[in-house]
UniProtKB/TrEMBL annotation:
It is found in: Cell membrane. It comes from the Bacteria. Residues 250-367, 624-729 form the ABC3 transporter permease C-terminal domain. It is a multi-pass membrane protein. The chain crosses the membrane at residues 18-36, 245-265, 297-324, 344-365, 411-429, 619-641, 668-689, 709-730. Keywords: Cell membrane, Membrane, Transmembrane, Transmembrane helix. It comes from Paenibacillus anaericanus. This is ABC transporter permease. InterPro entries: ABC3_permease_C, Membrane_comp_ABC_pdt. One of its GO terms (cellular component) is plasma membrane.
Amino acid sequence: MNLIRKQVYKNLLRNKGYIAVLFLVVLLTSFMYYFVEFSVDKNTTNLQSYVTEQQREQFRFQVRSDVDEAKVIDQLGQDYVLEARSIKKISDGDQKYFFINKTDHFNLPYIKTGRLPITESEIALSPEFMQSNHIELGQSLTIEDTTYTITGSFYLPDYEVFIPFGDIQQDYDSATFAIVTPKVYEKYTGKEELYFAGRVKADDDIEIEAKLAALKGNSAFSYMAQTNEITSHSQLQTGLDSNKILAHTFLLIIGLISLFLYYMFYKRFMMLHKQEFGCYKALGFTSLQISSVLVRFSLLIAAVGTLAGLVLGFFGSSILLQLYSSSYSFPYLTRGIDVSSFCYGVVLVIAATVLVTYIAVIQFMTQDGYSLLNNVDKTQNMSGATAVANKIANLLPPRWRLPVRVVLRKWNTLLLSALTILIVSTLFITSNSLYISSGTIIDAQTAGRSYEYDVTYDSYQQDQESLRVSRMYYLKEPIQIIQNERQIPVTIVGLDTQGSLLNLYNLKNDLIQLDHVNGVVISQGISELYGIGKGEALQFILDRKHLSANVADIVMNGDTNTIYLDKEELATKLGIASDMHSGELSNEYKHDASSSVVTAKEKRAIIENNSVSNRSSAVINQILGAVIGCLLLYIVVMLNFQDRTQDMVILRLLGYKPREINRLLVDVYRPMFVILYVFMSPIAIYISAQIHRLISIQTSDYIPFSTNGWFIMLAIVLIMLLYSLVVFFFKRKTYVWVRNEPIDISH
């Protein structure tokens, strides 16, 4: 048995290049899976523990101003634990401080360092703000001429993303949450948001869901949201869930490619060494003994490759952890995987590799010794591939006939080539679109805007007719789109059509006149994510009333998840006077305690900050596309090389030079790749667009898909460059082969 093992291994190791590729594809499969999974499993567990330990709210709400708040709270107290939450925004120069009250029952602050304030001269801040501004414990901080001592830093379980209630997302470079004593909190004047946070008095999940659902229809609420609807503490869980799906997608797609390559290699290896295996059977070795040698070889490659991928994935996951750290305020970001993930990425991959190897080998081992020794191919006469290849080749000029026959007679290589083009082009197109999506969003959400300040008020304000020239009034309300028995939270905005600081354009870049629109216009994100088209009826809930409107057009430059209509029409639906507004666009700074101001610069900074993950994903896709492209192209050329070695020697004896042999037998796939790309690029574009749509739905954040003709041309150039790189090494190998390989034309 040792003798046969040594001989088989010797033959296997003659294919060092192919063996290296088999090792690398298994390593890549494991690495890409664990690269993502190491940043997901442990943090998912940590997040659940964090939510439980800090008693994070299950819902939050505000009571209508025309309702007796104390009575409502007293009634809800029978089934829910409630606690008031307040945030006051204090601006001091370029810095913004969001004072937040310390709760006693839930949403408990997690103390990272130090302690919370005890005296009126103390303050605690967010750790990200302290790190960004190089602030240490014990240092002094001055706010509006009052100096405080920093006693600690803390995380808030209900604000894992820095989006203070009633405000936009903030940057820790210039803003922070702060906890002070109640007396200091009352001392300052600023825009204050008040709401109630709550948890259900129940332990059974079904009962909790039922009681949360009961809150939705409470007419006393002006606002109500469950934890999965609150962006400030649902994005981390959404991101972890999305990355888990991404990890399994990597494992499935790259794993299937790996198994396909293993099958192709062993099938080719068995065909090239059929006579040797026939000798082994003639010497008395059983099919199982011979197969076990090859299976153990695959087992060794797969085991080493998957474990190496696991180790590399462990270290590589630090990249994603850094992205998490820059995006989320969470104290327990660590690396780790579950037992099930180890089984998926190591045990399952090894088992699948061994199984595919056995399937490829046993097809030959079931043949009798005579068939193997005489190199009988039972399917050779039954195949119509040769006849088809000859018919097609005869239609072409003489100089192209041989290369075309070479390509078309090997349908498995042709299929692998098509798959290679599809995968690589999809990755390149996806990465390009992800990379430029931030620019697309910025362009869309800055086009048609000629204002510097967006001011929102706590209550409705009266329009001032004399200021309509320099300002643009609007009404803004949260609504829920009703689609297939689910409610999708979005925003509806009524714009004053007499203003000109915001002009909306449709997908044809035509100006939309809202006062001439019959119905509403929706953002491109809503249209593409939820499949709502122009001319369809839109069902939605506004102020607890079920309404319907016609979708008159799609807005190209609207805010994400936003519906637009004329302000007067929205005022009518709300049952208020038509000359009332809840916000205004202006080029004049106006700020008081009852308003919140967002500058155009701040809005752009938020969009750019949110684009970091898209650009990181783009880089990952580009690297992945290049690596997979090189590996698959290498396999394609190697399969052709292995099939044509004897042909190369014969052509050399007939007087062909190595350059001519390369042109006939090695370079034949260059024009074929171009033709395949023409057919595969539309499929790749469609797949890439669907990937964007699925990511947008999973993250509730619209990522527009975009590409152009120039990049489509660039993609095939990149593919051909990869192909040229691979072929360069084979041409040298071809020259050596045709000089030194002995001729064997016995079969």
